[in-house]
UniProtKB/TrEMBL annotation:
Naturally occurring in which organism (per UniProt): Vasconcelosia minhoensis LEGE 07310
GO MF annotation terms: ATP binding; ATP hydrolysis activity
Cited CDD domains: ABC_Mj1267_LivG_branched (cd03219)
Protein name per the record: Urea ABC transporter ATP-binding protein UrtD
Keyword annotations of the record: ATP-binding, Nucleotide-binding, Transport
GO CC entries: plasma membrane
Domain ABC transporter: 5-244
Record lineage: Bacteria, Bacillati, Cyanobacteriota, Cyanophyceae, Nodosilineales
Length: 251
């Protein structure tokens, strides 16, 4: 089976500082890959390099077999790689429905999108996204009035509305309540039924809820890769990330 996303020997250098050192990563259809690792390990830089936001010094990124290394973020998004950043980037004064509408692939500008007559197909796609992100009941509420967690879901919805086949999420549960975090896990699992998903995450409980394959980054390199159990019992991972406390539980 061919990988949807394939990262080969990737190096990213910021003014002489090697943020990524020979990283390899493969992501297949409908799988969830979770990236963990200490602060500064290079997790966000990896996603940035994939979507063309951080310049790749050497190595390659392939999406559906096509090389996308160092293409513009706009081009990469248009090809089908959706990326959600850490901070919500939503239109607070508009409704949830209008936010999703604006993000739909093929929308042109706020006024044109909102005033144009909606086709049945577009409406259907918006409702599908609202359902997947558990926001149907809030469809006509202003985003301003939503909780922090719901705003994050709106943004996940905006990524889905662009019709990507792979979705990259950078710490989607940051600042969420336990209940919202759990719900986000369910949303991600539902997205993975039809998309590949790559998630950067720190909360190990959440990682256990969603993880199928975990990649551990440390100082710009892949330190380990495997199932939750494999990673949790890996001594090097415990040493650099999970903490000594985990040794007793993993042993
Ligand atoms: N634009 C940049 N210019 C210079 N250095 C950068 C830049 N972006 C990231 N770095 C550095 O690269 C390293 C990796 O950063 P990155 O944000 O990818 O880590 P991370 O694993 O996502 O960390 P965190 O968990 O704290 O978000 C850090 O040392 C960071 O300071």
């Amino acid at each position: 089976m061919d990988a949807v996303l394939s990262v080969k020997d990737l190096n990213v250098v910021f003014s002489g500082f090697k943020a990524l050192k020979g990283v390899n990563l493969e992501v297949y259809d409908n799988e969830i890959v979770t990236i963990i690792g200490p602060n500064g390990a290079g997790k966000s830089t990896l996603l940035d390099a994939i979507v063309g936001k951080s310049p790749v010094a050497s190595g390659h990124v392939f999406y559906q077999g096509k090389e996308i290394t160092n293409r513009s973020p706009h081009q990469v998004a248009r090809m089908g790689v959706g990326r959600k950043f850490q901070n919500p980037n939503v239109y607070n004064q508009l409704t949830v429905f209008d936010n999703i509408l604006l993000a739909l692939k093929g929308s042109h500008g706020i006024l044109a999108s909102i005033t144009a007559k909606l086709t049945k197909a577009k409406k259907g796609r918006i409702y599908d996204v609202l359902e997947r992100t558990t926001l149907l009941d809030q469809a006509f509420e202003q985003v301003d009035s939503l909780s922090h967690g719901q705003k994050q879901w709106v943004e996940i919805g905006m990524v889905l509305a662009q019709d990507p086949s792979i979705v990259l999420l950078d710490e989607p549960t940051a600042g969420m309540t336990a209940k919202e975090t759990r719900m986000t896990g369910e949303i991600i699992k539902s997205i993975a039924q039809t998309h590949s998903v790559v998630v950067i995450e720190h909360d190990m409980e959440f990682v256990k809820q969603i993880a199928e394959r975990i990649v551990v980054l440390h100082q710009g390199s892949v330190l380990a890769e495997g199932s939750v159990e494999e990673v949790q019992s890996n001594r090097e991972v415990i040493e650099v990330y999970l903490g000594r406390e985990a040794i007793s539980t993993a042993a």
